[in-house]
Amino acid sequence: MPKFQGVIFDVDGVLVDSPHEKAWRESLRELMESSWSDIRDRTTWSPGGFTAHVYQQHVSGKPRASGARAALDYFQVPDAGQRVAEYAQRKQEMVVRLIQAGDFTAYPDALRFVIATKDAGMRIADASSSKNAALFLRQIRLDTFAQEQGISSLTLRPGLTLLDYFDVDVSGRDFAHGKPDPEIFLTAAHELGVEPRHAIVVEDASAGVQAAKAGRMAAIGVARADDADLLAAADADLVVTTLDDVDTGALSEGRLAARPA
After folding, report:
1. What digits encode the pLDDT tens for the residues 169-183?
2. Can you give the pTM of this predicted structure?
3. DSSP letter assigned to residue 39
4. Could you write out the DSSP letters of every residue in 192-243?
5. Does domain 6-17+104-252 have CATH number 3.30.460.10?
6. What is the pLDDT of residues 193-249, one digit of tens each?
7. Where in the chain are the domains?
8. What radius of gyration do the chain's Cα atoms show?
9. Which helix (H) or strand (E) holds 131?
10. Backbone φ and ψ of 90, nearest 5°
């Protein structure tokens, strides 16, 4: 296998513990308990039915409208096509409020891995379907994190945000096709100047892993929601529960491997 030259990161669920899942769940609950209450009994929705597993399998990683439609179809909501826009808009308004309120955290293992890959000489990109990705990334001070973690790196400078740190930012763009189509990742690789076969995609959603493999890229699946089986079934080359378990030394040799126990 050729040496890896670039790493492409999804944002929600990989870099940050975002409020997207909460926003999708709560905005649908609000609709079912208010303006959509008249059709509630004709659906399979229930207050506890929108589980983390449902989110990961059907919604996560998809563009907003596609995610909304997938959730409505899953709960067999009548006239789903006519309700997508209202649901997607309500979710967006809620998630922006949550982000602005700081209702998210960055995953320390992901930030360590981001720094390690760039220190290893690889170019890095963020590539999320979410139009809110930049709201997260510009709030995360990577210099402060490194200081707290005792990380010394020549790639860091004072005042550096995670958004600044990426060589390429393709998150939130409008693409003709969403994941599992590889368009977003192929665009990121092109802008990084890296051939797809020399790129690694880091994803937490099966749709994202499928997109990486469709683009002939290597894929690391991060199973943060007890969904390792879904990521493996999507053909991830390596599945870990934390990016601290990825052997960064092996990456320099062009191999995807877990750290020795």
Report:
1. 999 999 999 899 999
2. 0.81
3. G
4. HT--GGGEEEEESSHHHHHHHHHTT-EEEEE-SSS-HHHHHHTT-SEEESSG
5. no
6. 999 999 999 999 999 999 999 999 999 999 998 889 999 999 999 999 999 999 999
7. 6-17+104-252, 20-100
8. 19
9. none
10. -65, -40
